[in-house]
Amino acid sequence: MTGPVVTMTVEAGAIRRFAEAIGDPNPLYFDEEYARQTKWGGVVAPPTFLCTLLAPLPLPPVEFGTMGLNGGNKFECFRPVRPGDVIAAQARLAEVRAVAGRSGGMLITEREIRYTNQAGDVVATCRLTGIQR
Amino acid sequence: MTIPDVAAGPSIKELQVGQTLPVVVKHPTTRQLVMYAGASGDFYEIHYDTAFAQKAGLEGVIVHGLLKVAWLGQLVSSWAGPNSMVRTLEASYRGTDVPASDYRLNGTITSVEHKGEGSALIGLDVWGESADGTRTTLGNASVEVWE
Fold it and tell me: Is domain B14-28+64-146 classified as CATH 2.60.40.420?
């Protein structure tokens, strides 16, 4: 099962605000003059930036437990993400399973989001493990 | 503009399995959680609404898992320098963390693979620990570093 494709144009200001929010002072994320002198030749986004583009996955609501938690994430990065890139994201349901946890049953949902740029290259994937308990 | 001191990156010939990365210490605040919510678009109330979090069974608001993995990304990329790229970054959240408490990010080199074109792919174990030393985030990463 897959969700709809959603797109976002990457803005320099959004990269900067993300870096500020995580508290990373690396000038590679906001200082064009500095970044020009690096291998990348310009500002790029931090490794986990693309998780800000949440591709929806229309799952039927499941009444289970009192809260949802993030159990884990896995990022794979293939190409740099730069201001001006147009990124398309699509989520796929990879797995749903029920497990017995220490404090009762848990429902685990594995989603994978694939991010593609304007050239059609896959720039990154992100796996999200949701836990309902 | 003052440019913060960012490491130039390691010399890839000197990298060894077992070597540790400089520890990064974070001191998250509720302000930072709100900033992360806004920057990421994750507005789940357990990260900024104490009454909501308590009703859900937590002691109070908790740090976003995705913020903790972003810190692990910072740990790796700030050490690896600007001529590098984090290739994989995986984190498993084994416990919750609260603001106003130090959070320490650690990493150890587990593999070094020299590639052509003057780069090396470095494998790492990475983890985050709460102020009491509990490793609440366990993960691994790989970063490609160019000479």
Answer: no
